[in-house]
Amino acid sequence: VPAGTLALLLGTLLWAPWRALHGAPHGAPLAELSGDQDFQVFLRKNLEFTRKIKGDVAALQRMVCDTFQLCKEEELLLARQDLAITQVPLEQCHSHTFQVEACFSQIRDGLRTYHGSLAVVLGLLPGHAGMVETVQLDAANLSSNIQQQMEDLGLATVSFPTESRGLLPAFSSHFQHQVGGFFILANFQRFLETAVRALRHLARL
């Protein structure tokens, strides 16, 4: 199958609207990568690792819900407006401009950002510090795995602007701290869902 066809197929699988895609993105040779046994082993292992982290983040979300009765995003939108908490970008993994290097670089950088942001959750759930720290360690390890695999495959790392990312917000009240932790976990969950989708479709090529 031509590399261009594979690249276009990957772009259509990752994000709607699928019909809007025209032409094939330029980037890593997906046809070559998809046939690389080491690359496929890497994808399978880290797909499961990402799913494991996603499950642990979901468990932390349930703890925040049970502990603070903060469970639904739509009920907290007004409270969120005062907080400088934004979603870590991952558009390179689900747009028609998909590139392997850019997608992996964004996953790697995002994991590092959430590793730091989870300090907010650690302060909220001291009784579950072990679990929060496990998620932090797993995020750091997955980020390192991706960096190492990119180097092993000869993929170029891509740098993205990091203004204000990774900086922990200042909370003026304990309630703001609770809401901040809730949205950090909700955003991390969405980030991991997109990462899982990208790794899963790459593994199918």
From TrEMBL:
**What domain of life does the native source organism fall in?**
Eukaryota
Which GO BP terms sit in this record? immune response; positive regulation of myeloid cell differentiation
- Keyword DNA-binding set for record: no
User: What keywords appear on the UniProt entry?
Assistant: Disulfide bond, Glycoprotein, Growth factor, Secreted, Signal
Pfam entry (one): GCSF
Q: Name one GO cellular component term.
A: extracellular region
Q: Where is the signal peptide?
A: 1-23
Q: PROSITE patterns this protein is in?
A: INTERLEUKIN_6 (PS00254)
Location in the cell: Secreted
Which protein family is it in?
Belongs to the IL-6 superfamily.
Q: What is this protein called?
A: MGF factor
